[in-house]
Amino acid sequence: MLLTDRTAVVTGAGSGIGREIALGFAAEGARIAVLDRSREAGAVVVAELVAVGAREPVLAEVDVRSAAAVDEAIEEVAGVMGRIDILVNCAGVREIGDVYTMPAEEWENVIAINLSGTFYCCQSVARRMRETGGGSIVNLASVGGLIGLSHRPAYSAAKHGIVGLTKSLARDLASAGIRVNALCPGVIRTPMTEQYFSDASFEQELAVSVPLARCGETSDVAQAALYLASDMASYVTGVALPVDGGWLAEKSFVSGSGGASFLAGRETRFP
Ligand SMILES: NC(=O)c1ccc[n+]([C@@H]2O[C@H](COP(=O)([O-])OP(=O)(O)OC[C@H]3O[C@@H](n4cnc5c(N)ncnc54)[C@H](O)[C@@H]3O)[C@@H](O)[C@H]2O)c1
Q1: What would the pLDDT profile of 163-180 be if each residue is shown by its tens digit?
Q2: Which H or E element spans position 104?
Q3: 120: in domain
């Protein structure tokens, strides 16, 4: 097992990607602390962890927008578990909005949860990791942290911020033995994206625009997180790893296989 005797704090673990990471890390031997602003959702995941025989999971209700609340929750969790070896920042929200009409409160909320919340958790946990000899931090960014996504100005800005934060912290925390990396998922089916799937054509269109021809599953992200959190990635820090089926690798002018012929038909070959 890859995480025997390790402890892992997973924020946003009450749902979607965070839940899958909590269950996946527990299956690799880690003791898990589930942090979420929804106590009910967190308690359901703790019950699932207990049901699969996970080692004494811990639950803490916290809103990551508050630095003080984060520090209090991390203090509590570190007290119970003794130390924190791994932090995965999954707590996040996404807006879909128009730049001309987006209310300031919506912008501020997305930045507060996704970017400031990630920083507060990194800061609080890093203080403790430094005392105990190091650790690994994995931040959930997005493909929207590497390119600008339309109609998501706050989300794209926050996710670009998470990529920058990750690189900055990777430099500053390396001397304390703390690695910091980011994951940049494409479309992953979770409660956050479920509304897209109500349209029957969505998955077909996704299959055309994603080279690996399917939408992502939470397990795809959890396995990448496991790699970065574990000693398998002991020489990896400061990366922003896409988990997107190749979507970012090649952006055609035309979606799908038609893209190559679209360009080829307009190219001049020189002898
Ligand atoms: N689903 C995708 O397609 C996708 C793609 C790229 C990146 N991501 C990122 O992955 C992370 C997890 O997304 P998901 O799809 O699992 O979403 P989700 O909505 O299923 O889960 C998000 C969790 O975060 C918690 N949360 C929200 N605000 C919080 C706060 N202020 N304090 C504490 N907890 C809070 C929620 O209660 C929920 O349990 C997010 O950062 C998201 O931006 C998701």
Answers
A1: 999 999 999 999 999 999
A2: helix 104-110
A3: yes
